[in-house]
Every structure is written in structure tokens, then in C-alpha cells.
Design goal:
Radius of gyration: 18 Å
Distance between the termini: 41 Å
Bound molecules: coenzyme A
Helix content: 25-40%
Strand order of the largest sheet: 1-4-5-6-7-9-8
Number of domains: 1
């Protein structure tokens, strides 16, 4: 799908139902017992806690929706500081089955990464061990598997932990500090 046809923007109330349907219909989320009612509830929560300021931020994270030809064709749910307090976390991404393989998923990841990398040098995500397709997708986008977490979301399913990095936290803090105007005092670097 050409980027010109794809529009990605923060979640609006009108997107809740199509996104919830996409989630509830997918075999992935069925394995995690996400029903249509539960998906709707989660999305309403995201919207209810959202506030404006450089995009929609909320306690529940950011939720962006991809539209093409007036239809919802995908979504991504992420947090800027959802991992280890400092780092970005991509929680869920989904693309409508009829438009998969056309770059919508990559476009949604690019949207989240742009925001996350503006704040810090790491993006983390977890992907079900059985979800070979999504693992191939993330590897294609530059993610590396760094570990496994058994029984994290649900008994019997191992989550594989993936990371995309531009360097350690301290290195970025040092670069930011180095860009600041010099003063006579010593520059102290803190990542907290
Ligand atoms: C995983 C998912 C989001 C990918 O979305 P998509 O729009 O089909 O992905 P894209 O078309 O942007 O693909 C980007 C790259 O990844 C590759 N890729 C995507 N899905 C792949 C798969 N199943 N197997 C191998 N490679 C895959 C594409 O070939 C493409 O590579 P290219 O740049 O060399 O062409 C989509 O398949 C999906 O919604 N799956 C169900 C939900 C899910 O598993 N979510 C992830 C866990 S939360």
C-alpha cells in the first residue's frame, strides 16, 4: 500500500469498534481470551485516560490507528516509557488480514518508533513464542530477540522479548548533555 493512501492518527471514539473487532477476530488474541467486549473496554479506557499534548498520551499508553480508503486497516498500542521505566514498549499491533503484506504494519511501527526514539534509544516488545509470522516481521524491522519470559501473560505461553536499540541510555543522555550550551560547572549525566 502506498504511504499516500495510509493515514495514521491517534485513536478517536469512532475507531473503537472497528479496532475491537479486528482484535477479537484474530486467532492471536483469542488465545489470550480477549473478547470483543474486553477489547472495547480496553480501548475505551485508553481514550478515557488520554489527554492532548504532542499527540495523545495516557496512563494506558498511546493508541494509533491506520486508515486507508476511509476504513480502519490497523492499529498500534504502545508506551513511551513502558519498559524498565525508561524505554519504549510496543504492546499490540494488528493489521486487517486483507491488507497484510502491504506495508501497513511497517508504517505503524515507524509511527511508534518515531515517538519512542525521540525520547530514548530503545524499543522493547514481547511476542508469543508460537507467533512465527510476527517474529519474522519484527526481525525484518531490525528487532533482535534478547530473551524469553515463560508464563508472563498467560500460563503455558512463553513471550519472546525483542529489542531495537540505538545505544545504551547513558550514551544518549551524554549526547543530549553535550548538545547543551557549556557552563563553567561540570556536566552531570543522569538517566533517571
Ligand atoms: C504482524 C503484522 C502486524 C504484520 O503486518 P503487515 O502489514 O502484514 O506487515 P508489513 O506488510 O508492513 O511487513 C513488513 C515486513 O515484514 C515482513 N513480514 C510481515 N509479516 C510477515 C510474516 N508473517 N512472515 C514473514 N515476514 C513477514 C514483510 O514481508 C515485510 O518485509 P519486506 O519489507 O521485505 O517486504 C500482521 O501480520 C498482523 O496483524 N498479525 C496478527 C497480529 C499479530 O500477530 N500482531 C503482532 C503481535 S502483537
Amino acid at each position: 500500500m502506498s504511504p499516500a493512501r495510509l493515514r495514521i492518527r491517534p485513536l478517536h471514539a469512532i475507531d473503537i469498534d472497528p479496532c475491537a473487532r479486528l482484535i477479537a477476530a484474530d486467532p492471536l488474541w483469542k488465545r489470550y481470551h480477549i473478547t470483543l467486549a474486553r477489547a472495547r473496554r480496553l480501548l475505551r479506557e485508553v481514550l478515557a485516560t488520554a489527554h492532548r499534548g504532542g499527540g495523545r498520551m495516557s496512563e494506558a499508553g498511546e493508541f494509533a490507528v491506520a486508515h486507508s480508503g476511509g476504513q480502519v486497516v490497523g492499529f498500534i498500542w504502545f508506551r513511551l516509557d513502558g519498559t524498565f521505566h525508561h524505554s519504549g514498549y510496543v504492546r499490540w499491533i494488528g493489521v486487517a488480514p486483507h491488507v497484510r503484506g502491504q506495508g501497513v504494519g511497517a508504517g505503524l511501527m515507524a509511527y511508534a518508533e518515531r515517538k519512542i526514539f525521540a525520547r530514548g534509544p530503545n524499543v522493547f516488545l514481547m511476542v508469543s513464542a508460537f507467533n512465527a509470522g510476527a517474529q519474522a516481521f519484527y526481525k525484518r524491522l531490525g528487532y533482535t530477540e534478547i530473551g524469553a519470559v515463560p508464563n508472563y501473560a498467560i500460563w503455558g505461553i512463553t513471550e519472546r522479548l525483542f529489542r531495537k536499540t540505538r545505544g545504551p541510555l547513558g550514551a544518549t543522555a551524554a549526547r543530549v548533555a553535550a548538545r547543551r550550551p557549556r557552563s563553567t560547572s561540570r556536566i552531570s549525566v543522569s538517566v533517571s
